[in-house]
Amino acid sequence: MYRSHTCGELNSSAIGNQITLSGWVQKIRNKGFMIWVDLRDRYGITQLIFDEERSSEELMQKAATLGREFVIQVKGEVIERESKNPNIPTGEIEVLVNELSILNTSLTPPFTIENKTDGGEDLRMKYRYLDIRRNPVKDKLVFRHKVGMQVRNYLSNEGFIEVETPYLIKSTPEGARDFVVPSRMNEGQFYALPQSPQTFKQLLMVGGMDKYFQIVKCFRDEDLRADRQPEFTQIDCEMAFVEQEDILSIFEGLTKHLLKEVNGVEVDKFPRMTYEDAMKKYGNDKPDIRFGMEFGELNEVTKHKDFKIFNEAELVVGIAVPGGASYSRKEIDKLVDWVKRPQVGALGMVYAKYNEDGSFKSSVDKFYDEEDLAQWAEKTNAKLGDLICVLSGDTNKVRAQLSTLRMEMAERLGLRKADDFAPLWVIDFPLLEWDEETERYHAMHHPFTSPKIEDIPLLESDPGKVRANAYDLVLNGNEIGGGSIRIHDKETQSKMFTHLGFTKEEAKEQFGFLMNAFEYGAPPHGGIAFGFDRLTAILGGQETIRDFIAFPKNNAGRDVMIDAPSKLDEEQLKELSLKLNIE
Amino acid sequence: MYRSHTCGELNSSAIGNQITLSGWVQKIRNKGFMIWVDLRDRYGITQLIFDEERSSEELMQKAATLGREFVIQVKGEVIERESKNPNIPTGEIEVLVNELSILNTSLTPPFTIENKTDGGEDLRMKYRYLDIRRNPVKDKLVFRHKVGMQVRNYLSNEGFIEVETPYLIKSTPEGARDFVVPSRMNEGQFYALPQSPQTFKQLLMVGGMDKYFQIVKCFRDEDLRADRQPEFTQIDCEMAFVEQEDILSIFEGLTKHLLKEVNGVEVDKFPRMTYEDAMKKYGNDKPDIRFGMEFGELNEVTKHKDFKIFNEAELVVGIAVPGGASYSRKEIDKLVDWVKRPQVGALGMVYAKYNEDGSFKSSVDKFYDEEDLAQWAEKTNAKLGDLICVLSGDTNKVRAQLSTLRMEMAERLGLRKADDFAPLWVIDFPLLEWDEETERYHAMHHPFTSPKIEDIPLLESDPGKVRANAYDLVLNGNEIGGGSIRIHDKETQSKMFTHLGFTKEEAKEQFGFLMNAFEYGAPPHGGIAFGFDRLTAILGGQETIRDFIAFPKNNAGRDVMIDAPSKLDEEQLKELSLKLNIE
């Protein structure tokens, strides 16, 4: 071992001891007669001192050659520090060095290895191995490890077995695009990388594994949106002989366990909300309930006057922004512009100030009197001093727009507190969703999601109204998990395939082995999958996942550090029986 | 929940209780007036009873329709069993059923779901989800989970951080063949799946992560030998600021921890053996030291007579097979035939019986007298009653042949006991190995393995003699782990590349990003990787890995259950800018 201690553990109790440390040179202050070096490793920083009165000339000269990020080993005595630093655990001591070995030199790093770096995103990605030396990145990776360990401990204690499912599987054209892997030994054939182990976990249930989980990489060849990765990690879980309530209970337990062990936060029983209510109250199936601003539907109290825009709208709906009555005309105009940006897409915004003195002032005073506006206030739960913002139009669109406004205002008002955790189950998702493009229904989750028994008759008459035994776990406005109870009997399954527009042959072609497996005694089962990257980020108080991933890819799916993907040589292509098809 | 208890937990303390069970019908005995059903789930088997005196006629009729592997739920009373079965935990009780729901029917399974099944390997693989219901397979998967948890707990307690490294990386022509993944977004370019996270774990050390581990899938597109899988799992580990001794100590600790926690076995400090000694004493760099039969080199005591075969041989070497002196002439002839099979490849075998009365009888009595043979006995450590088997020829070949014979005899004599664990460190591996085909030296481990400092001068004069800071952990004759201290300075690294025949450009092309990283302060570091499939199998007392993998592939790299790999449709190929190149 190149050290007797780490750079994070020495304190005043070690004063007088001879110790050995190794690490990176974080900072050097050279006063000539004295040289201080901050030595850094994963565990912390310890101050080293070289002093011409107490150190040899040779040692002083050697210390003077050190540069940032040199790797060194020092031996020396722990002494009390003159000017103590109460902000770090080692701040009471320093090490008077009597031996210095330079284990490796370093070029000047392309950005500073500090908590706040001068390096831009691109540079940091290219030199990710240096970026990882910075506390904000390193700490997130350590945090991710802790979350993973706690997930495994909890589930293992609950009797779940982690089973590794294969990565080289079969491509199915359904769903998102697969990444594929040409097989050299099976000419002209391809494996696919799993988008999720969905089929395998269901097969494990058929196989009697009873409680399965896996923290596993999944792959989706999608055009990447911001903060999406082509490879991502899931906590994938499945249980047999369970109903929805059992799943909610176990995984509410898991989430509570994580919040307690990782964040030190105790949370009460998670509230539940139907998909329908979530859309109605928050315009969103993953509402952030850390704050209010619930939607107030205003159709009843707006359509009795001559305001044509509202009268023609399918939905008139508003929120009360706390303290917004004090906004200036200019501020409100900017807000109106903001909702009209194409990213939000509203055509305009009506507002009403509910002044501190109880009076109202609206942008539609021509049409609505104080009595009307008082009703708006009641519906939106506005308090004195609030600003009521009202959007109108097509129900789905206007809900999405108002949800975006709600989140923006919460952000601006500092209501989305990173250390405040508000989990929520959203339940009773629709089974099917209408796809405008293909003009048919798609499974909202996946084709094995079971409908609610009482809604099965609606499959014929009103498929869009059928609710599923499907649920999402939402944390602070982010979907962190989702799952369903699966169909385990052949009759319901084939009914579902019919409604999804699969012929018997297509269903057999795509899901044949699962359908076969279901012939041999499939138990009732259901499960859930958590997005591990996202979950970790949110528990870590962040909304972007990238720094919780050691080596992320950029938005073009490239790893700029290793420069992948890259070209293959002709020989490799030939072995794989492939030719490039580029015009 | 479909049950109040599992099928493995009810015993006499539950007698009189009303309970609910769910599971699969394992066995039915229908006497007409009484029907017994063995109900099975992951946790065990509970006997159900339907009795015409105590059950309704309707219930009797329903029970009579049950078939093997039907999924049922029963409610009933726990009662004392008349003929108790002491072999199972639930053997004292049975459940008098008063309610039966058939949750799912089952076709007759293609093989019996019993510990000893009538299903052949191919059928079992095709219906793997049924095979997993059998205890021997299910128990191995549960066992694997336990091993994995213990690995993670030990390493996490030792301060290791599990960091997920990417799966979509860059292809390098060096080493085994990569599986590649065409990138749709980067036309004509490919990712590769990792053969191991070697580069990334070294980058994590450069990044200051200090102690890294990961249980991770790796991929190698090799022509498959028996018991090899194209995807396999490693416990991959790396540490910074360490010397070889530190790695051996930590991972000896891990292995002891596993043996203790998983197998209940306490093992002393692991013996160590140099590669040279292992080859000399066992003809093998992964010797099984659970038994003796060490090699005795006989050159000195055989070359003084007129036996031309020995006189011309580079090496004459023997082992003493315990009790072998009693073998008949016919048995010995069969043994000679066995070593001459092409799989072993010996040209012949000389033997000498060391009879119980102290006399000798050899196949070369013409050349060697009792005094000579007594020397053979001394060199091979033969006891009264042993058979000395002697092979001769080219050193490397004859060692390999005698090693094969040694293992075979141990197997036949029952000396390879599954519950006996004999770990061994093999150290001081050669740095380089001569490749006949390309007529140059290859890195025996990989090009970043550090040579022993004292051997560096030999790099010029006698490269084959240079020893590396490389080590393997051997358990019961299987390599379960291997690793090395890495080169962390540029000078040694570029010297190595020269000796491996890489030009500067080639080294830069293939390892450029790692070489770059090393410019910015790489710490001394080293690591090890365990084959998780193999480790688990050996701890589980088996030598084949297949049943420790939930969904293994066959020797053609196919998953016969899901029928992968398979053809892609034209559209998919086109999106990937690929064409098949099949003549």
From TrEMBL, chains A, B:
Domain of life of the native organism: Bacteria
InterPro entries attached to this UniProt entry: Aa-tRNA-synt_II, aa-tRNA-synth_II, aa-tRNA-synth_II/BPL/LPL, Asp-tRNA-ligase_1, Asp-tRNA-ligase_1_N, Asp/Asn-tRNA-synth_IIb, AspRS_core, GAD-like_sf
Key words of the record: Aminoacyl-tRNA synthetase, ATP-binding, Cytoplasm, Ligase, Nucleotide-binding, Protein biosynthesis
Main location: cytoplasm
Entries under Gene3D superfamilies matching the protein: Bira Bifunctional Protein, Domain 2 (3.30.930.10), GAD-like domain (3.30.1360.30), Nucleic acid-binding proteins (2.40.50.140)
Entry function: Catalyzes the attachment of L-aspartate to tRNA(Asp) in a two-step reaction: L-aspartate is first activated by ATP to form Asp-AMP and then transferred to the acceptor end of tRNA(Asp).
Family indicated by similarity: Belongs to the class-II aminoacyl-tRNA synthetase family. Type 1 subfamily.
Self-association state and partner proteins as the record states: Homodimer.
Protein name: Aspartate--tRNA ligase
Source organism: Zunongwangia endophytica
Source species taxonomy: Bacteria, Pseudomonadati, Bacteroidota, Flavobacteriia, Flavobacteriales
